[in-house]
């Protein structure tokens, strides 16, 4: 597959056209950012680890009936993906109280939501800081149809259930994570990536943080914990 010009560069990834207009090459960078880009840095080999972690998780989700943009891993830093029309609505699933939820609602970090996860929507906009929205906003501003919103909700819950079990088997607690979706030939597919960049992951027994919060809050041993997640997921 021939890699052509760059069409998008974000905080953690670059997208390239290919000789097939239906397919893109997604490249994973080592760049790290937090607090809506106010804090920037580098996590050594993060791109390599996130590419392999995301590839493995996408494969697992596909095996369990979730339709994604993933086609195949190409090398250490690149995967081949379907060209999506991104829906600008991020879906966040929360299984344990942490991060922004605690700040907004005054809930103590670590509270486990046993009966069901908390689902939230955010408008995907870097200039605006990805503000929290509800279904009324999505409908009024035409970001997605009512039918698509129902797909986002049902797919989000399905992915959450699968991923909770996936990580639990590896002694990792899936605290919360964000999902992005896009349109492709009349279907809504899961896109972007699933990695320690976009998931809060805690050690199942000690609750030690194993994700980008280590970079975000200067907890140290960032590469070590990314490597641990990589080893637990990819060294199978």
Question: How do the strands and helices of this protein lay out in sequence?
Answer:
Elements: E1 3-9, E2 13-18, E3 23-28, E4 31-34, E5 39-42, H1 46-63, E6 70-73, E7 78-82, E8 85-86, E9 89-94, H2 100-105, E10 118-123, E11 132-133, H3 135-140, H4 146-168, E12 172-179, E13 181-184, E14 187-190, E15 199-203, H5 213-216, H6 222-234
Helix pairs in contact: 1-6
In short:
The chain contains six helices and 15 strands. It has helices at residues 46-63, 100-105, 135-140, 146-168, 213-216, 222-234, and strands at residues 3-9, 13-18, 23-28, 31-34, 39-42, 70-73, 78-82, 85-86, 89-94, 118-123, 132-133, 172-179, 181-184, 187-190, 199-203.
Question: Would you write up a description of this structure?
Answer:
The strands form 4 sheets. The protein has a 5-stranded antiparallel β-sheet. Strands 11-10-9-12-15 form a 5-stranded antiparallel β-sheet. A 3-stranded antiparallel β-sheet has the order 8-13-14, covered by helices on one side. Helix 1 (46-63) runs parallel beside helix 6. It contains 6 helices and 15 strands. It is of the alpha+beta class. It is globular.
